[in-house]
Amino acid sequence: MKKLLIISVAVLLFASCEKLGMGKKHKTCATVSADAVPAAVTKAFSDKHPGIAVTNWFNKDDKGYAARFNSRGKDALDFFDNNGNFQKEEVDEDNQQGNHQDGDDDDGCECETGD
After folding, report:
1. 10, 46, 50, 80: which sits with the fewest CB atoms below 10 Å from its CB?
2. Residue 84 in contact with residue 38, Cβ under 8 Å?
3. In angstroms, how far apart are the furthest CA atoms of the chain?
4. Would you say 102 and 79 are in contact if contact means Cβ atoms under 8 Å apart?
5. For residue 78, what are the β-bridge partners?
6. How do 86-91 and 64-71 pair as beta strands?
7. Going by DSSP bridges, is the β-strand pair 64-71/54-59 parallel, antiparallel, or unpaired?
8. 3-state secondary structure string, the chain?
9. What is the pLDDT of residue 26?
10. End-to-end CA distance of the chain
11. Shortest CA distance to 28 belongs to which of 91, 99, 111?
């Protein structure tokens, strides 16, 4: 009986973690060249951040693009839809050196800010 209880609790915990997305690995977004990014997106970025260079562009599951850049010594990501409309910005405040990922709550890909 005790073994059955332990097994039941273990299965319940595992199922709960799966449902909450714990232990779930997201795929990394595809890195794309600046030439592959729609002009409206690159213009929106340069209008928002004049003189700032994009380190990497990411394709967000064909739903939009993310630009990785340096903001005052910290890695940052700006997200745009396919039409160049700004969605949000995330800055790696903790300088996690490659462990920071965008905080999208969807099941889509994630963009790494660090190398």
Report:
1. 50
2. yes
3. 68
4. yes
5. 67, 89
6. unpaired
7. antiparallel
8. CHHHHHHHHHHHHHHHHHHHCCCCCCCECEEECHHHCCHHHHHHHHHHCCCCCEEEEEECCCCEEEEEEEECCEEEEEEEECCCCEEEEEECCCCCCCCCECCCCCCCCECECCC
9. 65
10. 50
11. 111
Q: Please name the residue that has the structure tokens 């709960």.
A: 16
- Residues 6-65 pLDDT 10s: 554 444 444 444 444 555 556 788 899 999 999 999 999 999 999 999 999 999 988 999
Q: CA distances (Å), 72 to each of 7, 69, 97, in order?
A: 51, 10, 15
Q: For the segment 24-37, what is each residue's pLDDT rounded down to a tens digit?
A: 556 788 899 999 99
Q: 63: which 2 tokens?
A: 């739903």
Burial class (CB in 10 A: 0-12, 13-18, 19+), 46: middle
